[in-house]
Amino acid sequence: MNLITDDGIKLNYQQAGTGQSLIFIHGFGGYQQVWTRQLEYFSSKGYHVVAYDQRNHGASQFDPNLASIHRLSKDLKELLELTTIKKPVLIGHSMGASVIYDFLTQYPAFDLAGAIAVDQSPYLINTPSWPYGFMKVTRANYVQGLMAPERSETLNGIDRHVFDMLSVVKRQFPFDRDANRKLLADVARHDFRKTLATTTVPTLLITANQSPFYRSSYAMVAKDNPAVEHVSIDQSGHVIMAEQVDKFNQVVENFLAKLN
Fold first, then answer.
1. Which of 19, 99, 86 is nearest to 55 (CA)?
2. Domains in the chain: ranges and CATH
3. What CA–CA distance (Å, rounded) separates 95 from 55?
4. pTM above 0.85, yes or no
5. What is the percent of the chain with per-residue pLDDT over 90, rounded to a whole number?
6. What DSSP string runs through 53-121?
């Protein structure tokens, strides 16, 4: 299915099931198929699941002018305005989590049931007082450091079914990292620490104990906010939902149960 945004860009999405809406948002260079196991599981549990390719990704249209995360969060807002969406819970991985942080910042009055951010620090640039950014990137090297991390995203690979699904779409729709350099730099420059510290939307931060990119302790930024919870999953790299499928789904299911 396709959604045409207010600036004429086609976004490809899929949906299944009925009930409360769970909106799954992939990361930089990702595809909606990374959520395959979650779409299958939660649609069978009485939820309406929606996953989409962000602009410049997968089967969605390429926008040569994309240079801001604000455009991605506006795309998300337009998706949430579909008549099929009910009591949405946002679930984003990596840059998809940053899109959620930005959405909470740009549209604080939007009626969300909850939000889940998967292995993504609210500020990617490391400073002397903030050693919780992406790897060791700093203001001096973050553009290059983010573009070429030079290490595996996963600890021991991902679920075979998800791998097979991703293999197909990666061949069909190869991602152009260099063409999205400006977008990635913009994501890195945004500091969402205040948003997490003050949001009233029930929010869950899911981190990976063996993440190659982040220290789980970035979650401390919201330690005084009762709306924000933190769960860390063991034996997983960055792509938690496809590495530790059952553990991840259970953590999400437990969080969703608290919202109802």
1. 99
2. 2-259 (3.40.50.1820)
3. 13
4. yes
5. 96
6. PPTTSTTSPP-TT---HHHHHHHHHHHHTSTT--S-EEEEETHHHHHHHHHHHH-TTS--SEEEEES--
Mean pLDDT, residues 113-125 = 98
Q: Please report where in the chains the tokens 């990635």 appear, as a residue.
A: 184
DSSP classification of residue 196: H
Cα end-to-end span (Å), the chain:
29
Which residue(s) pair with 232 in the sheet? 207
Say if CB 105 and CB 195 are below 8 A apart: yes
How far is residue 228's CA from residue 91's CA, in Å, rounded to a whole number?
14
Q: What is the pLDDT of residue 149?
A: 73
Cβ pair 49, 38 in contact under 8 A: yes
